[in-house]
Amino acid sequence: MFVIRPIHESDLDGLMDLLEDSGHGLTSLPKDRDIIKNKILYSERSFEHRGERPNGESYLFVMEEIFTGKIVGISGIISKIGGFEPYYFYRLKEEERHSKLLNVTKNVRSLHFEKIHAGPAEICSLFLSPEFRNSQNGRFLSLSRFLFMAEDRKYFEDQVIAEMRGKVNDQGHSPFWEAVGRKFMDIDFAQADYMQMKSKRFIEELLPEQPILVDLLPEDAQEVVGEVHPHTEPAKHILQQEGFSFGGLVGIFEPGPVLRAELDEVRAVKESKVIEVGEITDDTIDSEVLVISTSGEENEFKSCLGKLEILPNGKAKISAVTATALKLRFNEKLRYVTLKAKKDPKQEDLI
């Protein structure tokens, strides 16, 4: 059984072990112990000291195997991107051009440099150990964040984005970077990824702001614009089912799509409900699998997969296992939502 909870400094070793399997492209969590430690400390400060409005706080959550304490996954949220140092993207635009004389119609794609100083919230840093990947665990790791956002709604911007990992091979080769970024920075993709963890300023200093015509790039670079890494397809599929869609932005180094949604319209936020615990039982509960989390300011946020039954008095009956995992007692509140969105039964899970 797994529980998702805020990260703590004591998780540093376990997280570094997890990241050994992350390969290239998990740009927000480089395999640098000092950077990761600072991210953990910043996350702890974000949980402890929040103002009345989102101000760039960063929240990291770990997925822990309860009986062993092993860290098997991580996910994150940024309350508001931008601020003192902006975020950079390309906006992908398409224009149909037609010549009557030649009887030729062409769809012309171009990339336009864009920087965001006061942007939306962002969900990020999602990684699940290959050993534990399946449709249930991947969906649980992704959706738990939305229960936290629903619980503390005022601390997040009204819109939320997710920058999908673009196509980079196992050796860290990005055809788009070779065609564009390297021409202006004279460093390889991995170095650029690492440098932006320290500061993003060099992006604006060196990358030209003129539009890039995609059709003038090498074919392998054209093919990856707006495409996701194969390992990221399941995460993209889950977010699309939750109400996210492509809004035209792509990444600046490896141009994976940036998905966007109104936070209050995200299914896991909109459909989640708060209820009091009325009974804790050792008996089997007959219900579909739910994502269940703590609710209210009394307890540290935790979530797990479980089942519940609505009692005649309007309270919830939960299993002793769920109560133990979340440290819930009688009359305390929980928040829950179904694990899966309603979908076409012909669709298949991609994880």
Describe the structure.
- The chain has helices at 12-19, 33-48, 135-151, 175-179, 181-185, 189-198, 201-206, 219-223, 233-241, 267-270, 320-326, and strands at residues 2-6, 58-65, 71-78, 82-99, 104-118, 121-128, 159-163, 212-213, 245-250, 257-262, 273-281, 290-294, 303-306, 308-310, 316-319, 333-338.
- With 351 residues, the chain is of the alpha+beta class.
- The strands form two sheets. Strands 1-2-3-6-7-10-9-4-5-8 form a ten-stranded mixed β-sheet, with helices on both faces.
- Residues 344-351 have low confidence and may be disordered.
- It starts with a strand and ends in a 13-residue tail after the last strand.
Summarize this structure as a short list of keywords or feature phrases:
single chain, 26% helix, 351 residues, disordered C terminus, 16 strands, alpha+beta, ten-stranded mixed β-sheet, six-stranded mixed β-sheet
**Rg:** 22 Å
Return the structural class: alpha+beta
The SSE string, one letter per element, is EHHEEEEEHEHHHHEHHEEHEEEEEHE
Largest sheet, in brief, is: 10 strands, mixed
* End-to-end separation: 19 Å
Shape: globular
SS elements, strand count: 16
Relative strand content: 25-35%
The mean pLDDT is 91
List the helices and strands and how they pair.
Elements (H helix, E strand, L loop, with lengths): L1 E5 L5 H8 L13 H16 L9 E8 L5 E8 L3 E18 L4 E15 L2 E8 L6 H17 L7 E5 L11 H5 L1 H5 L3 H10 L2 H6 L5 E2 L5 H5 L9 H9 L3 E6 L6 E6 L4 H4 L2 E9 L8 E5 L8 E4 L1 E3 L5 E4 H7 L6 E6 L13
Parallel strand pairs: 6-7, 11-15
Antiparallel strand pairs: 1-2, 2-3, 3-6, 4-5, 4-9, 5-8, 7-10, 9-10, 11-16, 12-13, 12-16, 14-15
